[in-house]
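Many introductory courses stop at the sequence. We go one step further.
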Amino acid sequence: MSSTTTTRTATAAAAGRALEETDDPREQITVGVVMADGRLAPRSFASRAEAEAWARPEEQVVEWNFVCRCDA
């Protein structure tokens, strides 16, 4: 097996693992901020910590998944 084939195989295996880890929509959690006026903030957050740092004291950080769109 050549080094190119080995690299491609390793890359494909890593991509498959990443797909398996994120393939279940129940585990794809989205974080948002409900502003004081009840509207969802018009931006996305990479993590709950980022949302908490951005939110004001009167705002609420929420999480939901793509399956039920409910608080997690």
